[in-house]
Amino acid sequence: MTTVIDGKQVAASVIDAVKTASQALKDQAGVKTGLAVVIVGNDPASHAYVSSKSKMAKECGFTSVQHTLPEETTQEELAALVQTLNKDESLHGILVQLPLPKHLNSEPIIQSILPEKDVDGLHVVNAGKLATGDLDGGLVSCTPAGAMVFVKRTHGEDLSGLNAVVIGRSNLFGKPMAQLLLAANATVTIAHSRTRDLAAVCRNADILVAAVGRPEMVKADWVKPGATVIDVGINRIAAPERGEGKSRLVGDVAFEECAEVAAVITPVPGGVGPMTIAMLMANTVIAAYRKAGKTAPKF
Ligand code: GUN
After folding, report:
1. Which of 27, 89, 123, 185 could form a disulfide with 160 if both were Cys (CB 3.0 to 4.6 A apart)?
2. pLDDT tens column, 235-250
3. Is 93 marked as a binding-site residue?
4. Per the confidence metrics, is the pTM higher than 0.85?
5. Name one GO molecular function term (predicted).
6. Is the separation of the CB atoms in 18 and 299 below 8 Å?
7. CA of 243 to the centre of ligand 1 (A)
C-alpha cells in the first residue's frame, strides 16, 4: 500500500508545536514573537500567499505586521523599510515576498536583512551555515525544511545508506534540500536540466525530490519501487474537462502513475505547500527564542 502524505495534517502538527513554543516564551520570558511580511506590487498570487502568512502568524499568537507597498516603490524605499524592521526589537522575523517587481533588485534587499531575522533562510550567512553543516545556528529555507520533515517522519533522523536525488539546483530549494539530506547522512545527487539520462539517475533514488517547475515530468518508470517521492512543484495547467477556461494545480510528478510504484508520495496540492508556511512560523519562533537567549525548539 502506498502512503500518501497529508501535508495539511503534518503542517497542523508543526503549527500546534509553534503555538505551544510561542506561548511558553511569553510565559517564561515575557517575549511575544513578531513577524513582519513585506509585499511590493499587485501580483494576486503573491498577495494570497502573504495574507495567509500574516493570518497564520496571528493564529500562532505572534505580533504580525504586514507592509504592503505600491508597485512603483523604489529600491531605496524598500531598503529603508528593511532597515527599520531590522532595528525593531519587537520583530524577530522579516520576510520580503518574492518575486519583487522587475525594476527592483531582490538580492541586495535579501542580503540587507539581519541574518538572525532572515526567516526565509536566504541570507548568505544562513546559506553558509547550512552548507557547513551548522543546522542549529542558522535559519533554514522554509520549503526544504518542510520537505525534510516528511523525509524524517518517513525514514527517521539518520538516512545512512539511502540514495537521495534532488531534481533542481535553485538557491531557494534544490541546494538547501541537498544539504539537509547530506547533513542527515544520505548519499545525495543533485540533478538538473543538464543532467544526462535523468530517468536513470532518478531510478537510483530511495528518496526522490522533484523541484523543476515542469508539470508531471517525473514518470512512473523514473521511480525506484518502494521509493519516497516528494513533489515540490506547483504548476497550473489547463483543465478543459472542468469547463472552459478552467485550470488545475499539478506537481512535477505524474502522481497517479508514480503512486503505483512509490511506497510514500506527496500530493499536489496538499503536500509540501502547507509545510512552507508552517516552517516559516517555526523559524520565526526559533529566532525569537535565540534573541531571548533561550534554547530554540526543534520542529
Ligand atoms: N515566493 C514564493 N515562495 C517564497 C518564499 O519561500 N519566500 C519568499 N520570500 N517569497 C516566496
Report:
1. 185
2. 999 999 999 999 999 9
3. no
4. yes
5. methenyltetrahydrofolate cyclohydrolase activity
6. yes
7. 31
Q: Which of 47, 51, 54, 140 is nearest to 132 (CA)?
A: 140
Ligand 1 atom nearest to CA at 98: 10
Instruction: Give the distance between the most distant pair of CA atoms in the chain.
Output: 57
The confidence band for 1, taking pLDDT boundaries of 50, 70 and 90, is confident
- For 108, the 3-state DSSP assignment is helix
Ligand 1, residue 95: give the atom nearest the CA: 9
Could you give all domains of the chain from N- to C-terminal order, each with its CATH number? 27-123 (3.40.50.10860), 142-272 (3.40.50.720)
Instruction: Please report which residue ranges of 184-230 form alpha helices under DSSP H.
Output: 198-202
Q: Whose CA is nearest to atom 3 of ligand 1?
A: 98
Residue 167 marked as a ligand binder: no
β-strand partners of 253: 218
Take atom 2 of ligand 1 and give the residue whose Cα is closest. 98
pLDDT digits (tens, 9 = 90+) for 17-49: 999 999 999 999 999 999 999 999 999 999 999
Tell me how far the alpha carbon of residue 251 lies from the centroid of ligand 1, in angstroms.
Answer: 17
